[in-house]
Amino acid sequence: MKLEDQVISLELGKKLKELGVKQESLWYWYICKDETLACFNVPALISHKNIKQPELAGGSYYSAFTVAELGEMLPLAYLEQYKGELYHLVHYKTNTLTFDHQESDKLEANARAKMLVYLIKNKFMMF
Q1: How far apart are the C-alpha atoms of 126 and 121, rounded to whole Å?
Q2: What's the predicted TM-score (pTM) here?
C-alpha cells in the first residue's frame, strides 16, 4: 500500500488546518514555493523528522494525519467497509452526546478526516 493511501488527502489536510486542528503528525503534505528546488507547487509527503530542514523553508505544511492519529482525535464511531472499497463512519458518541451522521470515502483516513471536519464545523468538537 502506498503512503498516500494511508494518510489524509492534501485537500482535507488544508481544511483541517484552516479549522484550527493542531499541526502535529508523523507525516506532512509539503508544497515547496522555491523553484530552485525543482518542486514548485508540487505536493510531497515528508516525515515529521524533516519538517524543519532549512532547504524546506518557505513552503506550506499540512498535517497528513494517519488513521491511528485520527482515531485518537475522534470520539467513538462505528466503522463499516463496503465491498472493500468504501469506508463509512456512522453513529458518534461522546460523554454527553449521541448522534447519527455518516461520512464515507474510499480511504479510511479520509472518511475519518471528513467526520472530524463535520464535527468541528458543527461545533461538536473544538480545536
Answers
A1: 9
A2: 0.79
127 lies in a domain? Answer: no
CA dist list (Å): 100 to 32, 76, 77? 40, 12, 10
Stated as kind and residue range, the H or E segment containing 51 is none
Q: Which of 45, 63, 81 is the last residue of a domain?
A: 63
Give the number of other Cβ atoms within 10 Å of residue 20's Cβ.
10
Cβ contact 23:17 at 8 Å: yes
Select the more confidently predicted residue: 96 or 41.
Answer: 96
Amino acid at 17: K
The total of other beta-carbon atoms located within 10 Å of residue 100's CB is 9
Q: SS3 for 125?
A: coil
What number of other Cβ atoms are within 10 A of residue 15's Cβ? 19
Domain membership of residue 30 as a residue range = 3-63
φ, ψ at 100 (rounded to 5°)? -110, 130
Do 52 and 104 have their domain in common? no
Best-predicted range by mean pLDDT (33-37, 68-72, 96-100): 68-72
